[in-house]
UniProtKB/TrEMBL annotation:
It comes from the Archaea. Keywords: Membrane, Transmembrane, Transmembrane helix. Residues 140-199 form the Cell wall-active antibiotics response LiaF-like C-terminal domain. This is Cell wall-active antibiotics response protein. The lineage of its organism: Archaea, Methanobacteriati, Methanobacteriota, Stenosarchaea group, Halobacteria.
Length: 232
């Protein structure tokens, strides 16, 4: 239950804040246009909170939310012209790719410092479609799993983590991202959920043997109106 508590609190907080905005507008306490002009700032704060909470390990999702919401906020308050987003939106795609490369570079640097080869890296990208990968290496180190209006699955049941933890960066936007892992793996979430669902559906198992050590797998990233599921 505690695995999903943080994500639920994030989603609940966003819904409460939006509800307060709607209440202010319907009661006439604040001008409607003025209220909605500032709502993007709420998402900027959520993204910043997610970065700090994960100690900047969860990079891709929070930074993208900050960038997109921050751009809309600057437009709403008159700093950017109305047509700026329509002209420059491909910069968000470029930023997304850069963040993925930075995340992979950070994982590879960590592995090099620990003296093993990062041969278990893989990318699963599903955009308006489906993509499924099965990993069998005994030195899995990390991956990217992206599901945008699509279904992406990463099967790690035949993989092994030699140096814990392996890190999987997941981005689910109106999509379903599924990770299949061995039932005995300890998985830690460093994720941000905004109107999405992040769930570990594996049966309960004894986690006491690793209570004082690193988890086998860290799942970081964001679920924005999408799902991230862990199964065995």
């Amino acid at each position: 239950m505690t695995r999903n508590l943080s994500g639920r609190l994030t989603t609940g907080s966003v819904i409460v804040l939006i509800g307060l905005v709607l209440l202010l507008s319907t009661t006439g306490l604040v001008e409607v246009r003025s209220v909605w002009g500032w709502i993007a700032a709420l998402f900027v704060l959520v993204g910043m909170w997610a970065l700090i909470r994960s100690e900047f390990h969860n990079l891709v999702g929070p930074v993208m939310i900050i960038a997109i919401a921050g751009t809309f906020f600057l437009r709403n308050v008159g700093v950017l012209p109305d047509d700026a987003i329509g002209t420059w939106w491909p910069l968000f795609v470029i930023l997304f790719g850069v963040l993925l490369m930075i995340s992979r570079s950070r994982r590879r640097q960590r592995i090099r410092l620990e003296g093993i080869d990062a041969i278990g890296e893989v990318s699963v990208v599903s955009v308006f479609g489906g993509d499924e990968r099965r990993i069998t290496t005994d030195r899995f180190t990390g991956a990217e799993l992206v599901a945008v209006f699509g279904d992406g699955e990463l099967d790690l049941r035949d993989a092994n983590v030699k140096t814990r933890p392996a890190i999987v960066e997941v981005v689910s936007v109106f999509g379903d991202a599924e990770l299949r892992v061995p039932p005995e793996w300890e998985v830690r979430f460093e994720t941000l959920s905004i109107l999405g669902d992040i769930t570990d559906r594996r049966p309960r198992h004894d986690e006491s043997r690793k209570a004082d050590g690193d988890p086998d797998l860290i799942v970081s990233g964001v679920a924005f109106l999408g799902d991230i599921e862990i199964r065995d």
